[in-house]
Design brief:
Length: about 475
């Protein structure tokens, strides 16, 4: 496939004929901006950025790519953390920035049909305007796009109650790698007519086709959300706290982070330490408390945790402003550590295995990174940990990543030991591609490759991501 040579003037003219001359960018700044995601591992080198405004235009671009054997990289909000949206080999980048509208709303179904370029926060605000709620939420909600969320099956901070993006997708319109338009499931909750093809595209990282529209389920708005931040003495205290609260209260979130993460957020100066006691680790939990007995039960559990010495100190939100401020302690971590070029691991196991898993991973980290700052945080209530190694100033990016990759095998061996995932919610892309076999069997990978051939026989859709053919 010709993915390295620059596009000819004739091909650029054909693309212009599809989307209009003003919807094509080839200048260096645009190529760098739209050819990358949030990762720093690969240099973006796309050939052109194209901004379609309809599913029909996306189809025509894909058909053109098939005719001329050109590669396509779909682009959303470019907030990905696995290089799944990086165009590093002269690809045509199809940006969905201009496809960001609500197409229809179905009040009786609590469902909205949207274009895939809609920003997550835009959907959340639309749901609020209808008196409803879209619960999939994360730090990048203000810039991530729904198409990218679907392509990576994004998770975030509310998974313990609401699940992943997959749980909220009722239907999709996709342009396959062959250039066919499929309208899948059409928003129905009950549809027992064979294969649920939408689930192949959710989490497919754009390797089978491009999601252009989606039917998204909405929920009732939560009532009287309360947030606690608790300081804990060690890893061993975290899971007992989770079990104590979960056995009596329905949690909407249970997050975890270390003192290193806390300090990086505080250094930004936007929020204050929640209490005077400096603790090795912290948990943030959220729950609905529309009735006084729920709040009484929460305080009872907190006191029990203090008596058991699982908690050293804590704070309960007293206002909506404080709810927001406490959440920033967790949600601002990624932004706060970004200047340190973190090497990220996004790993998960069953909640049952979390205590033993953390001990094993911590031992690996202590042995192999004794001089590096290690930033722990994650959605520990659903078994998902983010292990971030921060780059020292005296190491180059390449030297630092090389040192980290040496230890990857030990980390992923441990993930495999507990039947876990090398990528809980960030996707595989290019950064995790060499390690896919730690989570997926050889037979599974062969079936995945066979599906790729069915939907994308000419391998035009996001080649080099997830696996190599």
């Amino acid at each position: 496939m010709n993915i390295a040579a620059p596009l000819s003037p004739q091909l650029l003219t054909e693309l212009s004929a599809i989307v209009g001359e003003s919807r094509i960018k080839t200048d260096d700044l645009s190529l760098q901006t739209w050819g990358c995601d949030y990762t720093k591992h690969f240099d973006p080198k796309p050939a052109v950025i194209v901004f379609p405004t309809s599913t029909a235009q996306v189809q025509q671009i894909v058909q053109l790519a098939n005719t001329h054997q050109l590669a396509i990289t779909p682009s959303g909000g470019r907030t990905g953390l696995s290089a799944g949206a990086v165009a590093a080999n002269g690809e045509i980048v199809i940006s969905l920035d201009k496809m960001n509208q609500v197409l229809d709303f179905f009040p009786a179904d609590r469902m909205v049909r949207i274009q895939a370029g809609m920003v997550t926060e835009q959907l959340q605000h639309y749901a609020e305007e209808q008196g409803l709620y879209y619960p999939v939420d994360f730090a990048s909600a203000g810039s991530s796009q729904m198409g990218g969320n679907i392509a990576t099956n994004a998770g975030g901070i509310k998974v313990i109650k609401y699940g992943m993006t997959r749980n909220w997708v009722l239907g999709l319109t996709v342009v396959t790698g062959k250039g066919d338009i499929l309208r899948i499931n059409k928003g129905m909750i009950k549809n027992a007519t064979g294969y649920a093809l939408q689930h192949l595209f959710i989490g497919g990282e754009g390797t089978l086709g491009i999601v252009t529209e989606a039917e998204i389920k909405l929920d009732r708005q939560p009532q009287d959300l309360q947030v606690m931040v608790l300081g804990v003495p060690n890893f061993d205290a975290v899971m007992p706290i989770l079990h104590a609260f979960q056995s009596k209260i329905d949690l909407t979130a249970f997050e975890f982070f270390g003192e290193v993460a806390m300090q990086k957020v505080l250094d930004h100066g936007h929020v204050q330490r929640p209490f005077d006691t400096e603790c090795p680790f912290y948990v943030l939990l959220e729950f609905e408390a529309p009735y006084e007995p729920i709040m009484d039960k929460a305080m009872e559990i907190f006191e029990h945790c203090m008596e058991e010495e699982w908690v050293l100190d804590g704070v309960l939100s007293q206002s909506l402003d404080q709810v927001e401020s406490l959440w920033r302690l967790r949600e601002d971590i990624s932004e706060s550590i970004a200047p340190f070029t973190p090497y990220k691991n996004d790993i998960s196991v069953l909640v049952t295995h979390v205590p033993a898993f953390i001990k094993d991973i911590d031992a690996i980290v202590q042995e192999n990174y004794p001089d590096f700052e290690v930033c722990w945080f994650g959605h520990i209530g659903d078994g998902n940990l983010h292990l971030n190694i921060l780059k020292p100033q005296d190491l180059s990016k390449d030297e630092f990543f090389a040192k980290c990759q040496v230890v990857n095998q030990h980390v992923f061996d441990t993930v495999q030991k507990y039947d876990g995932s090398i990528s809980a919610e960030h996707g595989v892309g290019m950064t995790k591609k060499p390690y896919l076999s730690y989570t997926r069997s050889a037979e599974e990978i062969e079936y995945m490759k066979a599906l790729k051939q069915v939907f994308d026989p000419n391998t035009v859709m996001n080649p080099g991501k997830l696996f190599d053919l």
